[in-house]
Structure formats: C-alpha cells, structure tokens
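User: ok so my PI wants both of these folded by tonight, can you help

Assistant: No problem, let's get them done. Here's the first:
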Amino acid sequence: MVGTRSGDKGGNANLGVFARTPAGYEWLASFLTIERVRELLPETADLAIDRHELANLSALNFVIYGLLQEGVAASTRIDAQAKSLGEWLRARVVDVPSALL
C-alpha cells in the first residue's frame, strides 16, 4: 500500500512515505498528519516535526527534529541513523480503506 525511505540528517530524522497509486496518495495525504505520526511513533511526541507534501511523487516527507540527539555518533537510539524508522512506521496497525488493499 505504501513504501518508506528514511535516514539521518545530523541529529534529525528524514522520513519519506510514498503511495503506489493516486488513490493511495489521496488517502495517505489526508491520514498521515503530524499528529498521526506522533501517535504512531510515540518517541516523537515532544519533538518538532515538519511535513512536506510532494504530490507529484505521491509522497510525504517528514523531518523529525532532534530524534537522533546530537547525530549518529552521539545518538543512544538503537537505530542511530534512522534507517529503519520507515519500517518501524509501516509496522504500525492502522485502518486502511478496503478499496486500497
């Protein structure tokens, strides 16, 4: 239904989420708000997050500030480079319209 790509940008995490169809993007753009990201990834609850819509790519990009503390070398996270952050998001259970499945 959706794919992801994520990684580090200093102490910030970059999380891209993309839909495979136009209908999927329409749902994704309305569903995956900053507030929803905070719900699905509780470790982001107190962090600043920017959301960027890339409609021409059927994608959303989130920048999560400070998730990686001072950066890769100083991060105490198991995933210090945020490479698996996208899969961590995709592992969450959410209601998806059956027409998209």
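One down. Here's the second:
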Amino acid sequence: MVIFDTNAILRYILQDNQAMADEVEQQLLDNLCFIPIEVVAEIVYVLSKVYGLKRDVIAQTLTDIADLDNIKIAQKPVVLHALGVYATTTLDFVDSLLVGYAKENEHTIFTFDKKLQKYLN
C-alpha cells in the first residue's frame, strides 16, 4: 500500500507540475493507495486558504478522488459526510469532520461551539 502525503495529492489536483502529477496518477493506477484523514484536512486547508478554491469545488474534487477504486481513506464515510457538510455550510473542515463522526458513527460530540452545535442537532 502506498500512503500519500498532502504535497503529492496537491500536485495531482492542481496539475501545476506535470511530471509530478503524472507520477502520482501512475501510483494511483498501479497501487492500493491510502490517504489519511489528516492529509485530507490539510488538502482542504491549502486549497481553500492558499489557492482560494471554493468549498464545493474542493469537496467535489476530494470526493472524486475518494471514489477511485484504488483509494482507501480512513473513516471514508465520515470524510465523505464531512466534505458534504463543508461544501454546504460555513463550518471549517475539522468541525465538518466532527459532524461526520456524529452522523456516521453516532458519536456524541461535546462542544461549546454554538455554530457546531446547530449542525449536530
């Protein structure tokens, strides 16, 4: 299994270094690949804050990657739920993940954050 870091996935998404993007694509085609939740969170942050991509574009792009046959993402249902929340709310991605944990795994989230509580109820 190949574990991807943020930089590799960003090269693939952004296609800003064609040689690196092609190498990532080849890895995605040839191997079982794993993207940790922490990497997904960092990708969301970089695409939003550094590249200024819109939330729905970020969510759709990462959902499309998650749907590739060779890709495994830890807690995939939680991450996909979080991407949907992130795309349609103003919650940051970490709070969106908490909503995903609550909804997909039926966890109770303890928070004083009123905005987050709204989406948990």
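Strands lie at 2-3, 33-35, 71-73. The domain at 2-120 is CATH 3.40.50 (Rossmann fold). Good luck tonight!
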